[in-house]
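User: ok so my PI wants both of these folded by tonight, can you help

Assistant: No problem, let's get them done. Here's the first:
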Amino acid sequence: MVSSEIKMRVAQNCNGYRPVYYMRLVNSITYGSESCSSCVNYVREKCTEGLFDEIRETISVN
């Protein structure tokens, strides 16, 4: 299982990130945060675009 922090860092560096909800409620805890969990391309804990592993490796190197 991938940690929430890793998902957030990957989403922030992903050019394929597309949020499920474009409108966020101001009172929402997730307001302004990006995460793979909130991406349309992240289904069943897997990136359907095949970008997650590549970006995670790049982040870990830097």
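One down. Here's the second:
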Amino acid sequence: MDYPESYELVFQAAAVEDDVVIVRRTDRAGAGGYPIYEDESGIVRAEISDRAEVRMLASGGHQVLLAPTMARPLSGPGAR
């Protein structure tokens, strides 16, 4: 299956605007068999299914993982 190269993960923010993080596909797969995506810093990591279901992955200790409200493909199948 072809997966998008990148996604925008949209997180509900306390401020007026939502927080958007761009993640790119890595060469790794998660426990569900779907690609793992991460941001440039490697701190925000997520396994994203072919239906844009997101499972956030810890990249370090003491992280509080929040689920995004939306995952939008930026490239590849399903991109806008």
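The CA atoms of residues 6 and 41 lie 15 Å apart. The chain has one domain: 6-73. Good luck tonight!
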